Amino acid sequence: MGLLRNAGSRWRRDGGPVATPTALAQGVSTGPGGTWAWAVIPPAATDELDSARLVAATAENAADLGRLLPPGADFHIKVQWGRWSGQDYLDQEWRPDLPDGAQQLLALQADRIDANDFPRRQVLIGVRMDVADTSLPAQLTARAKKATTGALSSGDAAQALAVSVKRVSGWLQRMGESSFRARPATTQELAWALRHDLRRVVDWLPDTPIASGGQLARLKSAQVLPGARHTEIGTDLGTRYLRLVIPTETGFPATGLELPGGEWLKHLDVLRSDDDPTAPPVEVSIRGRRPPKAEAVKTLSEALALAKEQERTAREGLAEEAPEQVALARSTLSARLLEVQSGLLDMVWDTPTWVVEAEDLDVLDRRTQALIDRYAGRGIKLWAPPHLQDLLWKETVLGDRRRVLEFAQFRPLSTLVGSWFHGGSQVGSATGSYVAANTGSTPGPVRTRITNAQLTRDAVTTVLVGSTGMAKSTSMCLMLVAEQLAVPSWAALPDMKGDLGGVPDYCEMYGGTVWRLSAEEQASGALDAFRYLQDDPQTAASYAVDDLTLMLPVQRRQLVEAPLRAAADSVAALSDPDQRSTHAIIEALHNSTDPHEQQLGRDLTSLARDPLARAVAGPPDLSATPIPTGPGFVYFKLNALRLPDPHTPEELWKPGGRLSAMFVQAVFTYLAHMSSQVRGIPKLLALPELHLITGFSYGTSLLERIARMGSANDTDLLLDTQATGDLLRIPGLVDQINSVFAFGARTDTEAADQARLLGLEPDRAVLDRQRGLRKGQCLYRDSQGQIAAIRFDRLTQQIAEVLDTTTKRHPTTVDTSTDGTTADPMEEAS
């Protein structure tokens, strides 16, 4: 569309003083630059949209914006960056009832947010509302009034102002109902944007609904020194240097930009590099105007006529062959004109301006060139015009106006919308614990509040999938401990591999109550159902019969069920709870007068001495702390189990396999009881290495039951597995998934299964991305279906070391050639 820009030579540059507002209120600013309606476009989750949905969303947004931008009106889009505040997070999450340890962890999370220096994006879209109505009826009415009454009366002025306010309110309402989900900008957001324009460092904001008079004077106090090649702004932290970069006259490809890949404002954190790790994201200001349809048709028709003339002239001088660029421009203009005439396309004049910031001129030069080079790789030509820097800077200020028009781009509105200035990588909860960093186009802290799912009767299952060594289990435990400390709850972690022993240590570091149970060494009878079900001995007896039966060879089980139940009933009938136990059932059989029951008692007595059975069927150690049925963290270390192969028939199980299966069954019985029977507190059940238990019927049964009934029972599931395909095959589980964390995959098959869990099409780009993720990085699909790339944060080096699951070697075999430096906790976890 470069042929159209030649018309800009007739425009004059506006060098008047910067026009700042004289008053700000919710959704509106007014001043010498006019009355503007302002809306905030909240971050969205668009980074990971597949091609079809990206194109559809662009078309919907373009149609909405074409309807919402009044014909003939100026508009202003501002993309600015502040910083996420640890203090804001602390203020939002702190409660007076939080235990001391939980407050310490909360403060640590807030400090970590500050240390990470997360940029926070604000997108404002403004439309000037005090423009004259250019429709034919309005022009005729105005001429009639002028002919009969002369100048406008004060009543007419008041009526005009009332009309502007009404138009502002209506426009803001329509923006909120559109696909942008925009909301009126608050007075404070507008004040922040203005102060940021003029001062860069925002140290004060008005706290009133309307800001005017002295408040605006305080906001507008600034030290700005325009120069030929840059603008200097005095701040509380020293001088900041700005350079304004705009497209050249032929800066954008004539045929537009294709999706996906053409989202030229999607990523603005483009200057940060290993050489310049502190570079702030680039800010963008887009001044534009949507011409009425008749004006757009006229402009395109004139440009098409010019293109035809240039093509004819070129043919005469080049043996009937016109240059390819001229022919392409003619073809494009013809298509544009037809689309505009038929109402299929809206056009806009707009000038995007990139704002590069630095603390000194050398860095400013380097960052400016890096920006120009980055966009050149996309086929977009940018430059920093000298002697226009002051005018371009004024254009960026909230409430000002268009000043330099000769570089305006005349193009389809869909090309502007397709830049995805309004997109983002929004993901996670609005409240909750800080657990990770958003690494998408809108960086920031990622927060979760797992236990909120029940409050909205939402699904309760969170799954973490990915190849081994990608930090799934560590990440799950970071969320689990943060949740358990912040929300008084019961949490349990069966550790099938035995490498998560640092998790209860981490919980205790911040005052959590922890109960440990190990299959290797544990108080006798610690997992006996009679101990945690003292008020329900009949249910405990039923659980005990299940456990004792599984200890025996499958060939004997049917023959011993009756005497086992009889002995269990007699124990359940005892009045003294301390006399009721699984071991008491064995003793009852041992003391029976029936020789067969005596033999059964002797066999079970021998089996109960095995370390794998002692915690369930051994003589109860009444001095040991009972397993909790209230708030607390329960850790089961189960790596010493010798579970049989799930494909081996039970009649071929070895004694160690039977006792291991019984131990896991007893653990799962306790977990199921806590999930379904204990009321009044949230409950969290984390199951790492899920593939180690889904091969057994009781493991699959527990998952299905909790997943289906978890919301009603106030129980959340956190599942971690390498075998995404196995997860997909568990009946009914996928429908109950609330959130998905998909870590790196090593095969296309695994990556494709992950894509299905995320709700994405498993195309080549998705598969390659999942296979390219590093440790600690993942795609997160939250409960709202939003998807973004994140990286878990282990907060401190001490926590990172406590949670480290790397296999340790004997000191004599350790490589001592390292430099002894410590890793950043944000780096990938083991």
UniProtKB/TrEMBL annotation:
Low complexity bias: start-end ranges: 813-824
Coiled-coil regions, chain positions: none
Annotated InterPro entries: P-loop_NTPase
Region (Disordered): 1-30, 806-830
Protein origin, superkingdom: Bacteria
Listed name of the protein: ATP/GTP-binding protein
